[in-house]
Amino acid sequence: MINVIWLLLMASGILYAGLNGRIEVVTLSAISAAKSAVELTINLIGVMCLWLGIMKIAELSGLIRGISYILTPIIGFLFPSVPRNHPAMGAIIMTISANMLGLGNAVTPLGIKAMQELQTLNPKKDTATPAMCTLLALCTTGFTLVPATIIALRSAAGSVNPTEIVGSTLVVSLLATIFVLVIDRLCRAVWKR
Prior knowledge:
single chain, mainly alpha, Spore maturation protein A, transmembrane
């Protein structure tokens, strides 16, 4: 469906430009946007490599294990149906850790792996479990200590102070996470009846 919407938007823009005799503007805009996208991508590669390298160093130094150790009681409380020694627990912790470090690109494959592990515990394969819903909610709000991807985007776009959003991002992501966890628990209580 989204492809149809994009097709309609592009076709209507081209048609409008053609009717106004300004089709060259569409061509120039398309070329300019493609050039900007490539430049932004090249700028992001360096920053993302830096953060992924830091994440690897954190993993090898034991920092990720430390974060996992700290998060285990919290994750155990949030996901009571998941056994503590199940691979899903480790996948959930890695997903939330990557989210906290602002590595949005790394969260997606980790989140998919966590969902696959949670599916192994699912008695009804065609219905999401409460643990799956909680994980999806947590990934959607994405509590972030260091918004690395946003900092990288702001830096690549030429921001004078790309890190000035760290404080507001921390507050907003914390409030969103608390809100979604409260709503998650309320929905569980309502549909449990």
